[in-house]
Amino acid sequence: MAKTIFEEMGGTYARQGDYLLPCLFLPAEKENKPIGVWGQRHLRYLKQHRKVLYTNLLTSGKLNSYLADIDEQAEDLFFRLVNQMVEREGVTEQLKMENQMEWVGRMNNIHGSAMEIVNAELIYS
Predict the structure, then answer these.
(1) Which among 50, 105, 60, 111 has a CA at the least distance from the CA of 85?
(2) Which end of the chain is more exposed for a tag (fewer CB within 10 A), N or C?
């Protein structure tokens, strides 16, 4: 019996009941970087809205490194935006000592604004 193309390329089959199914494995990723909150959000977005890109990254073995890169970019952008907004709006340690509630409110507003920008620019695009 002639070998199939899959067998000629070194593939093997496993018997599952009456069927022979190919033994397929995803390629191992070279780097296994941790994925943070931003990367997890982008992963969820890819799974729901960009299924083809998600499948291509998964099957090529590049998904984890892609998500780690997105996470790093988002984290850098978030902190840079927060620092710029704090300077622009004049939220200082002096304000924190004088009126803590106002400082907390302004910082929460800044964090929320920066989070929306990062989500729009990197995570959900």
Answers:
(1) 111
(2) N
In angstroms, rounded to a whole number, what is the distance separating the alpha carbons of residues 95 and 86?
12
Q: Which amino acid is at 54?
A: Y
Question: What tokens does 38 get?
Answer: 């931003």
Q: Give the pTM.
A: 0.76
What is the distance between the alpha carbons of residues 34 and 32, in angstroms, rounded to a whole number?
7
CA pair distance 118, 46, nearest whole angstrom:
16
